[in-house]
Amino acid sequence: MSQHDNRTQQAAVRRTVWRSVAALVGMFAFAFALVPLYDVFCRVTGLNGKADTSAQAIVHEEVDQSRMVTVQFITRNGSGLPWRMDVETRQVRLHPGQTSEVNFTFSNQSGAESWGRAVPSVSPATATRHVRKTSCFCFEEQQLQAGERVELPLVFQLARDLPPEVNTITLVYTLYPVEGKDVPLQAGVKSDEGGEA
Questions:
Q1: What pLDDT score does 78 carry?
Q2: Residue 124 carries which DSSP code?
Q3: How many angstroms separate the first and last alpha carbons of the chain?
Q4: How far is Cα 72 from Cα 168, in angstroms, rounded to an integer?
Q5: Dihedrals φ, ψ of 41, to 5°?
Q6: Which pLDDT tens digit goes with each residue over 67-99?
Q7: Model pTM?
């Protein structure tokens, strides 16, 4: 093999390596961007039970007295936050078009202040866009002092155009620590992972 052929082959190998590296970086960047893009898509469309976390106005519409819908509430404490979240009522029954209010309690079980946020999801996913929240603790971060306990309301309305096959809706709220805030982990304080209230 001549020296010229050898250089040509080395240049071809280098080009192949650089193309492979560029493709790998591109694939990694695309995979990294998929999660936030998917979250935005789910929030816009209501797909996969991702609930909107902004206040909506109550719509004054005629209540559909012909059917009742059961709305269940489940609370979960994610790891890393020494709080407990409870709900006063596990479920309510109401007509589409009707408004309801349910109170949730939050308790900081540690010896220091901390920040948390309740992240909502709705099941079945087809009901997501038909649950209008006018007041919800999930709209913003919450701060609790050491040992503090607060009661916060959820005010919501079921839209009258809720699909007729939906007879039960489950609202799940999961507590997470707020990133960038000091959230101390106390020895002996356990999260109530997966617990219902």
A1: 80
A2: S
A3: 77
A4: 7
A5: -60, -45
A6: 999 999 999 988 889 999 999 999 999 999 999
A7: 0.63
